[in-house]
Amino acid sequence: MISTRAAVLLMTLLSAVLAGLFVWHDGYKVNLLAWFILALGLVLAHASNNIFNDYTDYTRGVDKDNYYRTMYGPQPVADGLMTNAST
């Protein structure tokens, strides 16, 4: 949950919900299965991006010392919650 920054994934889910509501409001037939797959894909893509972002920031040396992001919340790799498999 920490590595995906689950708290902000709600924004992505809310965007997908709003998109579905706008389509429904405009009178189009909503395919619920297609909408669910779309919403799930968007949330998983956002979660994956958060994990890859943390990893690349750490490997490039961005998340070290007094970097502001390490001060306001845990950074999974920098704080030792996740490790690099090659080390």
What count of helical segments does DSSP give? 3
Distance between the termini: 23 Å
Task: Give me the count of strands.
Answer: 0
The percentage of residues in β strands lies in under 5%
Instruction: Report the structural category.
Output: mainly alpha
**Rg over C-alpha atoms, rounded to the nearest angstrom:** 17 Å
Sum up the overall morphology in one term. Answer: elongated
Helix content estimate: 55-70%
Sheet having the most strands: none
Poorly predicted spans: none
Helix-strand string? HHH
Whole-number average pLDDT? Answer: 82
Q: What can you see in these coordinates?
A:
There is one protein chain. The protein has 87 residues and is mainly alpha-helical. Helix content is 61%, strand content 0%. The chain contains 3 helices and no strands. The chain has helices at residues 6-25, 32-59, 68-72.
What labels describe this entry?
single chain, 87 residues, mainly alpha
In short:
With 87 residues, the protein is mainly α. Helices cover 61% and strands 0% of the residues.
Write the layout of secondary structure elements.
Blueprint: H1 6-25, H2 32-59, H3 68-72
